[in-house]
Amino acid sequence: MKRRVLGRSGVTVSELCLGTLNFGWNVGMEQAFEVLDTFRAAGGNFVQTSSVRFGDGAGLASAHASEDYVGRWRRARGIARPELFLATRVMFEGAPTLAGATLEQTVRAACEASLRRLQTDHLDLFLLEWGGANVAIDDLLVSLARLRRAGLIRYFGAGGLPAWRVMEAIHRAVQRDTDRFEVVQADFSLLAQERPERDLLDLCQAYRLGFLARSPLGGGLLAEVDRDEAFSGWRGRRAPLEDGATALTSVRAALAEVAARHDVSLPRVALAWVLAQRAVTAPVVGVASAPQLRELLAATDFTLSTEDLDFLTRVAVRPAAARLPQPSTLVSL
Predict the structure, then answer these.
(1) Alpha-helical segments (H) within the chain
(2) Longest Cα–Cα distance in the chain
(3) Which of 93, 15, 104, 9 is nearest to 59 (CA)?
(4) Phi-psi bin for 287: left (phi > 0), alpha (psi -120 to 50), beta?
(5) Whole-model pTM above 0.85?
(6) Which of 16, 46, 66, 244 has its CA 20 to 30 A from that of 6?
(7) Is the pLDDT of residue 266 over 60?
(8) What CA–CA distance (Å, rounded) separates 245 from 250?
(9) CATH number of the domain that residue 214 is part of
(10) Does residue 325 belong to any structural domain of this protein?
(11) pLDDT tens for residues 140-168?
(12) How buried is residue 210: exposed, middle or buried, by Cβ count under 10 Å (0-12/13-18/19+)?
């Protein structure tokens, strides 16, 4: 795998980021270790874990297994800390603070809990996603800057925000003369590449932000399970599409045409398209097995022609024409 520079940080990371949200759900520890070994053997150093929910006055809840598994794996394999770029994603839901705590205390508690599970003294990237939670951006930036000064995190970023919110956060950081977001994560694939996503890519390019493409296979909708043997056991969401059925069928047909021309799988073509897009630092890929990962790793050695790229982009889903189901929150394919 080749390396790419993460935004303006100067740090180089593998061109694929291994998402581990499945770990502990439909991927046991032995399988997880095999996936991590396969990723590292291919030159991967960028691993993202997840702490699914934080807040609501209930403390930590749900999937923390990904952090635990990755921490155990690194220790078991004796991997020196600088050899990995470790990221974790924390999702705030409802009330963004723990009961009786300030936002800063809550953010620090989330960070320290992740550090304990990962068995490390710092995070390379701390990603926050707050959805409907009412988070004061100024307070959040100050809290994150203090974590950075304390050496607990190197960089921080945001997930799931529209371009205008990211721009607002950058503007507020400049006004306060404090650290800013250095990375943005958002859904991006042939099923999510219209104006909102393109606005984010333009923003990332203009302000030298790293961009992590989440769900590069559209939550698995671009992995034809029946045809791609490596994905036969995949548990992604494949619900009927109603209004989006025709549009999705067109995208799959285009992928199949390109895949047949090059004698490769649909997932390989779909991921190669994402890798070729400007401003994309790394797609975040989540798998349930090492064979699935090996198929996706092959996309890093597969280059689409300009004609192929243009053809796929032209047939890509338009949001006004199709409403796609949201990918499962437990799968980051």
Answers:
(1) 29-41, 65-77, 103-118, 137-149, 163-176, 195-207, 245-262, 266-275, 290-297, 306-315
(2) 60
(3) 93
(4) beta
(5) yes
(6) 66
(7) yes
(8) 9
(9) 3.20.20.100
(10) no
(11) 999 999 999 999 999 999 998 889 989 99
(12) buried
